[in-house]
Amino acid sequence: MGKFWSVTALAATFAVLAGLAGCGDGSDEDVTTIGVVGPLTLQYASFGEQMKQGADLAVADINKAGGVLGKQLEVDYGDDACDPKQAVAVAGQMVGARVPLVVGHFCSGSSIPAAQIYGDADLVMISPASTNPTLTDDRAGPNIYRVCGRDDQQGAVAGNYIADHFAGKNIAIVHDKTAYGKGLADQTKKAMNEAGLEEKLYEAITANEKDYSALVSKLKRNNIDLIFLGGYHTEAGLITRQMRDQGLDTVMMGGDALVSQEYWSITGDAGEGTLMTFSPDPRNNPAAKDVVERFEAKGVEPEGYVLYTYAAIQAWAEAAEKAGTTSSIEVTEALNNNAFDTVIGKFRFNEKGDPNLPPYAVYRWKDGKYAEIDTKSGEAVVTDGETEDKTPEVHPVEAERPGGEENDPTE
């Protein structure tokens, strides 16, 4: 959070000051327009599509039930491309449009500076996916929330899992220099070190590159058994594929940014055995059963942050009904003082704006799908009476074994 966005944030704030005078609620007589902002283009567009799918169905369902306070909802979509400067500009546009809610942003590097704009404007922001602790630890206002977990929680689960299952092995901790990636990598490193396991390598990569052969060669020279990548599915997929091309059987592990079918599209069978952390799969929540079935009937797999986006809109709609208005001050009070029944479960926001939802879990990719595994046994969590194989074992190490300021994404 340096000058590169604070100056832009100031400019964006001045640009919408006129619109703030007598600021309304983004509605006319029959319609209330809400904002949804995420990466709708460029390399993280698959996550923006998850957000759009969740928002579209949430709004359709709410409208079918009568809308919010008798008004139908419409969505104004904003594309920040997971770029901090673009996120600030879009935030200014949303404030100028006087929407009563922004569901977003996706990437932490976008959410953190954008939250300053929303905080100053008293506009309710609920991120479905930004996990960097700074978003709520240094909260821009009481109107800033998230419905997902935090990287200090996620890193603790990842770090302890590595220490338990890869004790005595060679570990590399790698990040992509982003708010999300470095934050998650450092939290994982901290938990792993506290559990008694030290990494052999700590490296940084540049996101959006295509050739990671230099990193892969370094992994090979150091006989790395597991790489934990703080970064996104695109880079993780390319590194995994390039490791296999060089003959490495090093296990790839990452965070919730690997929760996209696009990861397997990049890796193919090379992604077999990849580990990742994510919240307990909301698709398995009984409260989501009907919604999941309707998504699937439309040919949409509600993976990743689809249901989290749906839940963010649900929580705001419930709060507005309780407040009897979409005015930010009253809705913020309702959000801070009530529990909400959503597709990801029933939760309340704490004093920071974080939800009291269940902790993170560990997942394994197998046959093009990911499934939760038990963090102690390595066995797949039993669903519908079926159990998967154990987590892949690390093969014995052999002598010459084949094995800025960039966009600042989430989480």
TrEMBL record:
Coiled coil: none annotated. The keyword Transport applies. Residues 376-411 are annotated as: Disordered. Residues 33-368 form the Leucine-binding protein domain. The keyword Lipid biosynthesis does not apply. Keywords: Amino-acid transport, Signal, Transport. InterPro entries: Leu-bd, Leu_Ile_Val-bd, Peripla_BP_I. Residues 388-404 have a biased composition (Basic and acidic residues). Pfam families: Peripla_BP_6 (PF13458). Belongs to the leucine-binding protein family. This is Branched-chain amino acid ABC transporter substrate-binding protein. It comes from Methyloligella solikamskensis.
